[in-house]
Specification:
- The protein is an all-alpha fold.
- It is built from 9 helices and no strands.
- The N and C termini lie far apart (51 Å).
- It has one domain (4-210).
- This is Membrane protein.
- One of its GO terms (cellular component) is plasma membrane.
- Keywords: Cell membrane, Membrane, Transmembrane, Transmembrane helix.
- Residues 25-99, 110-182 form the Glycine transporter domain.
Length: 220
């Protein structure tokens, strides 16, 4: 796991390139997945290229920026570590040009679920490396994973998904909680992140398949 000091060093252009850590891998997975999800949302809303890139950027980078602010990391890594916005830009651009070749049914849902799992893992692991307290790990893990999607939906003139229906943020809360519990039993951090990524992704996919929803007051 990358420590807070090491994560801050990422913004230093003089730091020699080193192999990617699990935290960076989950970040890249989340950025690609949420860039695709945001770009698809923009395409479905009939936005132009700038609008699509904006949704791709906001979906993939906003959650991490919020997490860094909560953890006192300044400036936020997503704004100064060039590979992250570069990957977001390229993923959005490829989605724009290759959208008609996508054959997966409901690609937005699958990309969004993958991004949710990846950012739950990266957010929870980052928070634990800063301060291993359960509430911090759960909140930062959840905010990292849902923050970008909330901003994406607002920009697309929709009520954010987490406020209206489906088992969405709840999957991230479960994933973040599992990460903290795995750390308590001395589970290897890298393996814990991968496990949480897939657990959160699967919970979201199962929730979509079986239409899981939290209780609500039915309209009269």
């Amino acid at each position: 796991m990358k420590s807070l000091e090491e994560r801050l060093d990422m913004v230093n252009p003089l730091v020699v390139f080193q192999p990617l850590t699990t935290l960076e891998v989950t970040n890249f997975i989340g950025i690609v997945a949420f860039s695709i999800a945001g770009s698809i949302k923009g395409i479905e809303k009939r936005m132009d290229l700038l609008g699509i890139l904006t949704l791709g950027f906001s979906s993939s980078l906003a959650g991490g920026i919020i997490a860094d602010i909560l953890l006192g990391i300044h400036p936020p890594v997503n704004l100064v570590y060039i590979p992250y916005p570069t990957v977001a830009f390229l993923s959005s651009l490829f989605t724009f040009f290759l959208y008609r070749k996508i054959t997966i049914k409901n690609p937005l849902l699958y990309a969004d679920a993958l991004g949710l799992g990846a950012f739950t893992a990266s957010g929870a692991s980052l928070a634990y490396s800063v301060d291993p307290r359960p509430l911090l790990v759960i909140i930062v893990g959840t905010v990292t994973s849902v923050g970008g999607g909330v901003l994406r939906d607002i920009l697309a003139n929709e009520i954010p998904l987490i406020l209206t229906k489906e088992f969405y943020a709840s999957a991230s809360i479960v994933g973040s909680s599992v990460y903290f519990l795995l750390m308590l039993v001395r589970f290897p951090p890298g393996e814990a992140s991968i496990l949480v990524l897939f657990l959160t992704f699967l919970l979201r996919i199962i929730a979509i398949r079986f239409k899981w929803e939290l209780p609500r007051i039915k309209s009269i």
